[in-house]
Design goal:
There is one protein chain. The protein has 246 residues and is of the alpha+beta class. The protein has a single domain (6-243), classed as Creatinase/methionine aminopeptidase superfamily (Creatine Amidinohydrolase, Alpha-Beta Complex), CATH 3.90.230. Helix content is 31%, strand content 25%. The chain has helices spanning 6-27, 36-50, 55-60, 116-135, 143-155, and strands at residues 53-54, 67-70, 73-75, 89-98, 101-110, 159-160, 166-168, 175-179, 196-199, 202-204, 210-212, 219-221, 227-229, 232-235, 242-243. A hairpin with a 6-residue loop joins strand 11 and strand 12. Helix 1 runs antiparallel to helix 2 (36-50) and helix 4 packs antiparallel against helix 5. The radius of gyration is 17 Å and the shape is globular.
Length: 246
C-alpha cells in the first residue's frame, strides 16, 4: 500500500511497535534449552496484550503466532518442541495485524556460545539490511535495493537466497511489489513516496538455493548451510525511510 493520510501512518506505526516489542521479548529468552514453541508463546502474549493478531495465521493459516527458523531453515519454520542448542542460529520472524494494518520484521540471533562463523553470518544479514535502507529513497529504482543487498552479502562470501524476497505490505502481509535481494532489470520501477515495503535480506553460507522441508511451510537450504535473515517494514520518503519496526 501507499500511505495517503496521517491516520494510516499512525496505524502502521502502532502495528510496527507490536512487532518490535514481540521481537525484543522473544530475543531476551533465546538460550540453550528453550523451545521454539516457548518463544512463540512469548510473542502470543505480546500480541494479546496489544489486541493484535498474527499475520501468517490470519492470512494463510500458518500453525503458529510467529515463524521461527533454526540453522539451515531459511524461513517459515513452525514453532514446536525443538529445543535450541548452544551454537544455533535462530531467526525470529514476526508479523502483526492490528486494526487492519500489518507490519513485519525479523532478526537472526545466535544461541549461547556460537562460532565466529555463525556470528559473522548473522552480522552480515544486519549489514545488508542497513545497506539497503540507505538506498531506499523515492525516485530510486526498486532494483537498487537488491543491488545493495547482493553487493553487501557477496562482499562477505555469502549468497542471497534468490527465491526469497521482500514485498509490499500494509493491508495484507504480501502486496506488490516484490523486493528482491539481487539486481535485475525487470525490477527497475521507481520507488514512490509513501510506499510501504519490507526489506529482508535472506542469505546463506552456501549456495542460497532452498527446498521445501516437507512440512508444507519451512524452507531449508539445499546444501544444509546456515541461513540468516534480517527485516524491517519501512515507508519510502524523499529522504531516509521511516522504519516502522525498529
Amino acid at each position: 500500500m501507499s500511505i495517503e493520510t496521517p491516520e494510516e501512518l499512525a496505524a502502521l506505526r502502532a502495528a510496527g511497535r507490536v512487532v518490535a516489542e514481540a521481537i525484543r521479548a522473544m530475543r531476551t529468552r533465546v538460550r540453550p534449552g528453550v523451545t521454539t514453541r516457548e518463544l512463540d508463546e512469548i510473542a502470543a502474549g505480546v500480541f494479546a496484550g496489544a489486541g493484535a493478531r498474527p499475520g501468517p495465521q490470519l492470512d494463510y493459516g500458518f500453525p503458529g503466532t510467529t515463524c521461527i527458523s533454526v540453522n539451515d531453515e531459511a524461513v517459515h519454520g513452525i514453532p514446536g518442541k525443538r529445543r535450541l542448542r548452544d551454537g544455533d542460529l535462530v531467526k525470529l520472524d514476526v508479523t502483526a495485524e492490528l486494526r487492519g494494518y500489518y507490519a513485519d520484521a525479523c532478526v537472526s540471533v545466535t544461541v549461547g556460545n556460537a562460532s565466529d562463523a555463525t556470528r559473522k553470518l548473522a552480522a552480515a544479514s544486519r549489514e545488508a539490511l542497513n545497506c539497503a535502507l540507505e538506498t531506499a529513497r523515492a525516485g530510486t529504482a526498486l532494483n537498487a535495493i537488491g543491488y545493495a543487498v547482493q553487493q553487501s552479502v557477496s562482499s562477505h562470501g555469502y549468497s542471497v537466497c534468490p527465491d526469497l524476497m521482500g514485498h509490499g505490505i500494509g493491508r495484507r502481509i504480501h502486496e506488490p511489489p516484490n523486493v528482491p535481494n539481487y539486481h535485475h532489470p525487470r525490477f527497475g520501477q521507481p520507488l514512490t513516496e509513501g510506499l510501504v515495503i519490507t526489506i529482508e535480506p535472506i542469505l546463506a553460507a552456501g549456495s542460497g538455493a532452498v527446498r521445501d522441508a516437507g512440512d508444507g511451510w519451512t524452507l531449508k537450504t539445499r546444501d544444509g548451510s546456515y541461513a540468516a535473515h534480517a527485516e524491517h517494514t519501512i515507508v519510502i520518503t524523499d529522504g531516509a525511510p521511516i522504519i516502522l519496526t525498529a
